[in-house]
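Run: sequence + glutamic acid -> complex structure.
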Amino acid sequence: MAGAGAAAYVGRFAPSPTGDLHFGSLIAAVGSYLEARSRNGHWLVRIEDLDPPRTVPGAAEAQLAELRRFGFQWDGEVLYQNTRSAAYAQALAQLEEAGWLFPCACTRSELRPGEPYAGTCRQGLPPGREGRALRVRVHNTPVTFDDRLQGPQTETLSQSCGDFVVRRADGLTAYQLAVVVDDAFQGVTDVVRGSDLLDSTARQRYLQSLLGLPKTGYLHLPLVKDPEGRKLGKRYASDPLSQQEPRGALGAALRFLGHAPPPHKTLAQRWQWAQKNWRSERIPRQGGDIVIAH
Ligand code: GLU
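>> structure
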């Protein structure tokens, strides 16, 4: 366990340094932060720089500076996924030893987008072909979990995605594996993040069970959508946080998450109010309007 001490609740925010933080990132940060703080828990930050080709130089530092400017205070050291290759290799070795992995030769053009993996290489590589990615075998037993906001979830991996990639063809660890290895390493008990990751959760639960890791709780926040006709919301949602004034943006995030902060003079007062008045029961399941007011 790294940096988590003995807190009963450990949450985290795990941005990928692929660009600027925006309003959707702020929602995930605020939701995970206030959940952790309202339970006297710890809140960790992990930089998911797992994918060098997608990592933008300087983006991680800029994201951390933004979090500081917004007044977030994290516990312990920031964990960078680029320091964790040995742990990912060890997890892969554990899965390999238990017979869960198989090499897959399929190229992107041989896979059918949007359909579960057809099982082409499951019983061995076709003659003359070389393994590219490593996949983990899935089965027909449904994976179930209770999302604290989105309710009970059931997914049968063989029908939704099939055997999925845990080491990519370019040799990089897949996000699904890295996230469960790191959540366990950091002692994370509860994952609060955007609903765009709800459909990754069954795969992550499945990997937790194969690796014998503790199961985390989940709360998937409403998504910030960009529907046409909501010009302010649309522009605001995609503008970098660095262009927003923190007190107003925090207010907009709190409103989006079902809270109604009164006018505050300072950012510190707003945070104080938020920590005292945060109730996860108020968070709507679906995203609504972005309302900006000071
Ligand atoms: N790094 C992921 C992202 O920025 C989030 C991962 C997670 O919260 O599990 O979308």
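>> summary
Residues 86-176 form a domain with the Rossmann fold fold (CATH 3.40.50.620). Residues 23-38 form the longest helix (16 residues).
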